[in-house]
Design goal:
With about 170 residues, the protein is an alpha+beta fold. The protein has a single domain, classed as 2-Layer Sandwich (Beta-Lactamase), CATH 3.30.450.150. Helix content is about 40%, strand content about 15%. Helix 3 crosses helix 6. The N and C termini lie far apart (about 50 Å).
């Protein structure tokens, strides 16, 4: 009865204005494509002599696929996720396609590093925003474990180039 009383107290028409669609759909990669993308990044880096971990995040910011190379250090698992998350969350917000582009645009926040205190955020090269051909956003890819973030990012960019035709 409390709910009925609360609704009854709304001005006429407020409930109708507040109501939106009952079901919201979000486009994201299928798990198969997310898995192929992470595997491509690990394979490309391995061909260049580096063992890495690659993580794909979906539009909710959660891990969708993770592939860990055979000899990567433990921290590459969390770092690859954080790069993917940062590329997705901030790349979408500031219209930048890589974590390197975010860094170059000084999107890393105020001099006090406040953005880097947000859990999961890591402004380090190696993250790529995942987009369809129409530039709609599907998630992020992060790679960690090569001897330098720019090398991680090169593998991630190459993997996206290889797999993105399947994003349709």
């Amino acid at each position: 009865m409390l709910v009925a009383g609360a609704v009854a107290g709304l001005p006429a028409g407020s409930a109708a204005r507040a109501a939106g669609p009952a079901v919201i759909t979000t486009q994201k990669l299928s798990w198969e494509i997310a898995d192929q993308l992470a595997a491509a990044a690990v394979r490309i880096c391995a061909a260049r002599g580096w063992s890495v971990t690659a993580a794909v995040v979906d539009p909710s910011g959660h891990e969708q696929a993770v592939i860990k190379g055979d000899t990567v250090p433990l921290q590459s698992l969390s770092v690859s996720y954080r790069k993917a998350y940062t590329a997705y969350a901030y790349g979408m917000t500031f219209d930048k396609d890589t974590t390197s582009a975010l860094i170059a645009a000084k999107v890393t926040g105020p001099p006090n590093g406040a953005l880097n205190t947000i859990p999961q955020v890591l402004f380090v090269p190696g993250g790529v925003l995942l987009r369809r051909a129409d530039r709609s956003v599907l998630g992020g890819l992060g790679v960690s474990g090569a001897p330098g973030g720019e090398l991680d990012e090169a593998c991630a960019v190459a993997a996206v180039k290889e797999v993105s035709p399947r994003f349709q």
